[in-house]
Write a structure and sequence with these properties.
Elements: H1 12-19, E1 31-33, E2 43-47, E3 52-56, H2 58-73, H3 96-108
Length: 114
């Protein structure tokens, strides 16, 4: 089997810097930043299910964005109303379910809740 990949977000770091504040979660989401997200340094997140914490870097966020796109594209993750990885381009498509999946990928490297 040959995989075909396409570039969805040409500069993930720039996209995250521009849009991270628009990716809002709600109280049901499992992963929350302890303080404001800081992509220039580190951000500490808390998993509200088990109260563990993790400090994440920009690279963790970039990796999570890639994994999110890969999982959606492979039809292995169904969150929000997203049908394709290209839906990730518009931050208006990121409901709390998508944001929680993204943060779980930052924190755990996989989506383990819901």
């Amino acid at each position: 089997m040959v995989a075909i990949t396409a570039q969805i977000i040409p500069d993930a770091e720039a996209w995250l810097r521009e849009n991270i504040r628009d990716l809002t979660a709600d109280s049901v989401c499992s992963i929350h930043p302890v303080d404001e997200i800081n992509l220039d340094a580190e951000t500490t997140y808390i998993d509200r299910v088990d109260d563990s914490t993790k400090t994440a870097t920009m690279q963790d966020h970039v990796n999570a964005l890639q994994k999110l796109a890969d999982l959606i594209g492979a039809k292995q993750l169904f969150v929000g109303e997203l049908k394709s990885p290209t839906d990730l381009i518009d931050p208006c498509n990121w409901d709390a379910e998508v944001v929680d999946a993204f943060r779980q990928l930052v924190f755990h490297g996989e989506v383990i809740y819901g």
